[in-house]
Design brief:
Number of domains: 1
Strand content: under 5%
Largest sheet: none
Radius of gyration: 15 Å
Order of helices and strands: HHHHHHHHHHH
Shape: globular
Number of helices: 11
């Protein structure tokens, strides 16, 4: 396996593991989620962890609202969209936007300079492009939310 492919694989495993661990923590600490769903707040935590935007120790000391605000600040500082754009998103959409950024950054598909000039739609387009040509014009892509799109890119069935 070549070096860049290995780096992509390791980054994908790291992100997927954070999503899984976050889901496990919710099950263990707050009871079993309804219909097997993971609350969006735990995905916010997972995105901050997977993106190395906050340490586990920092996250443990933060409230869910603090974690939400931290992700908003990180996204506004790392993309071309303002804080107000991300504040207007619900928790699920915010976590999905963060997952797009983290996936592109951690897999090194896009660097920080490239990400800084991109908005949420461009992030989404870059993830779809990373999935390959057969997905670029697939109508199912339009119906996936951002988190499910990243999960698909990680090889986790949405």
């Amino acid at each position: 396996m070549n070096h860049s492919r290995l780096r992509l694989t390791l980054a994908a495993v790291s992100i997927a593991a954070c999503l899984h661990v976050s889901a496990h923590e919710v099950t263990r600490t707050a009871g079993v989620p309804v219909a097997g769903e993971v609350p969006a707040r735990s995905y916010i935590r997972a995105v901050l962890l997977a993106g190395k935007l906050r340490s586990p120790r920092e996250l443990n000391a933060m409230t869910a609202e603090d974690q939400r605000n931290a992700l908003i600040v990180e996204l506004a500082g790392r993309t071309n969209q303002p804080v107000a754009h991300f504040q207007a998103l619900d928790d699920a959409a915010l976590a999905g936007a963060g997952a797009l950024l983290v996936f592109l950054r951690e897999t090194r598909i896009r660097g920080d300079r490239e990400l800084k000039v991109m908005g949420e739609d461009e992030l989404r387009g870059a993830v779809i492009a990373a999935l390959g040509p057969r997905f670029m014009h697939d109508p199912k892509m339009r119906h996936l939310d951002n988190m499910d799109l990243v999960r698909m890119a990680l090889g986790i069935a949405p």
